[in-house]
């Protein structure tokens, strides 16, 4: 195992007195409008030099488990929205050609609406926040906003909402981001850092007055979230066999280590490597959390297929038990590679991609999983691979996008935008950002036009994938 705590380069430190005052930061934000007028964010054009989106996806696949790639392509081909979820790299490539203000934040890199949700805070409160950080990196704040806005447009198209309804949803989402950022600009720094959305405050973050059906759906989701815990995962993913807890097989999505049939794999050696991953990851936890982890023992391991765009990255489900068979802890060790943003904004300061994910998550989330950590595994699949580790389920709940009516999707977009603005306000110059955005709807309308144009391009890219699968160029496995 390699040392996992050394960064490639350290973050620069600033003298406290060197920080610009509020007036200077406002001037900086307004001056950025000269570099990128707010109306310029409507721009999206393609040319003959646009990289082939499928070639970009295939390039990603070169470092992934080849036997799982047909599942990835099959999932992405299911709809234009599914394609968009898996196409963070093609969109980053396109966004790199769009205007930018020059203001930088800790960017999510994949801030589409399905990457937000509810989960438990360490204090055992149900909070709403961004919940996917595989692509996080310091970068342009606009890219996150445009990806979120475009995802709202595509999801609304997927529901056959009218153009008027879609426009209202996207404009409301971007306006909510702008209003939230202006609100954070007026707050003390610590108040911004402590701000969070929980189950009691989420309804107040939207200007939409939800009907009874939507309110009841939200209440059901919060109740259900509390059942999505480690004990619930034990009932879903494992069973007791002859007094021993074992993970259930659901191939190809969940394959216990004992059932991997590739003759080239030494299962005993692989199990020892994964156990070393767990041991080395432990060193990245705070001291009190290492004490907590030490009260559990690893009893079973399974390979797990996760997500849409992530399919093909190595992911392991780890079942640990505490005092007895009814005291489980499920961890997930997920492979982390370079962010899709790195090609366009520069390499991460961290030499370990798992550390990049963990640090970015801790910066952006109001509350993070107490078991969040990272590790590098040498010799896994004959290569050094980085992983981050977290709980598999801890009161996790996602919005039912397919069940949303226009008012519900608009409200959801506003809440997502608030959470994104809060993350950006924590890590960027919120005062300059607020000054750049201003009080008018110029930015909101421009991003709405961008989202419409990019949704058209996404549909063309999706059809290109469907045709490539039909022609046999790209292998795909549907329905998994």
TrEMBL record:
Q: Which InterPro entries match?
A: DUF2252
Question: Which domain of life does the UniProt lineage start with?
Answer: Bacteria
A Pfam family hit: DUF2252
Positions of the UniProt region annotated as Disordered: 1-54
Where does this protein have compositionally biased stretches of type Basic and acidic residues?
A: 12-41
Protein name, UniProt field? DUF2252 domain-containing protein
């Amino acid at each position: 195992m390699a040392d996992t705590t050394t960064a490639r380069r350290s973050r620069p430190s600033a003298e406290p007195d060197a920080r610009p005052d509020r007036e200077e930061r406002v001037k900086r934000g307004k001056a950025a409008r000269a570099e990128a007028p707010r109306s310029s964010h409507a721009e999206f054009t393609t040319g003959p030099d646009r990289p082939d989106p499928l070639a970009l996806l295939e390039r990603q696949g070169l470092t992934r488990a080849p036997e799982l790639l047909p599942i990835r392509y099959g999932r992405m081909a299911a709809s234009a929205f599914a394609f968009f979820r898996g196409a963070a790299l093609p969109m980053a490539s396109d966004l790199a050609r769009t205007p930018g203000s020059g203001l930088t934040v800790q960017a999510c890199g994949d801030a589409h609406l399905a990457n937000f949700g509810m989960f438990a805070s360490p204090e055992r409160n149900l909070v709403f926040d961004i919940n996917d950080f595989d692509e996080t990196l310091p970068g342009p704040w606009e890219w996150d906003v445009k990806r979120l806005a475009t995802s709202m447009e595509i999801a609304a198209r997927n529901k056959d909402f009218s153009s008027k309804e879609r426009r209202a949803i996207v404009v409301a989402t971007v306006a909510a981001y702008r209003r939230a950022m202006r609100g954070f600009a007026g707050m003390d720094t610590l108040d911004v850092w402590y701000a969070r959305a929980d189950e009691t405050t989420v309804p107040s973050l939207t200007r939409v007055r939800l009907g009874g059906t939507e309110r009841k759906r939200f209440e059901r989701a919060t109740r259900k979230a509390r059942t999505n815990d480690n004990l619930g995962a034990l009932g879903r993913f494992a069973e007791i066999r002859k007094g021993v807890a074992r993970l259930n097989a659901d191939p190809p999505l969940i394959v216990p280590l004992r059932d991997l049939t590739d003759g080239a794999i030494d299962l005993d050696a692989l199990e020892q490597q994964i156990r070393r991953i767990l041991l080395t990851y432990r060193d990245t936890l705070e001291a009190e959390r290492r004490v907590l982890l030490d009260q559990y023992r690893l009893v079973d391991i399974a390979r797990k297929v996760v997500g849409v765009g992530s399919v093909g990255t190595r992911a392991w489900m780890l079942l640990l038990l505490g005092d007895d068979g009814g005291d489980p802890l499920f961890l997930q060790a997920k492979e982390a590679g370079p962010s899709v943003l790195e090609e366009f904004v520069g390499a991460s300061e961290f030499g370990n991609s798992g550390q990049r994910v963990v640090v970015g998550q801790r910066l952006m989330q109001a509350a993070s999983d107490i078991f969040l950590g990272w590790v590098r595994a040498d010799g896994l699949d004959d290569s050094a691979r980085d992983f981050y580790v977290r709980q598999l389920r801890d009161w996790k709940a996602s919005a039912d996008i397919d069940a949303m009516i226009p008012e519900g999707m608009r409200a959801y977009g506003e809440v997502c935008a608030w959470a994104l603005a809060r993350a950006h306000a924590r890590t960027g110059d919120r005062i300059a950002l607020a000054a750049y955005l201003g009080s008018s709807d110029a930015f909101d309308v421009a991003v709405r036009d961008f989202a419409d144009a990019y949704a058209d391009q996404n549909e063309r890219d999706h059809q290109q994938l469907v045709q490539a699968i039909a022609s046999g160029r790209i292998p795909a496995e549907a329905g998994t």
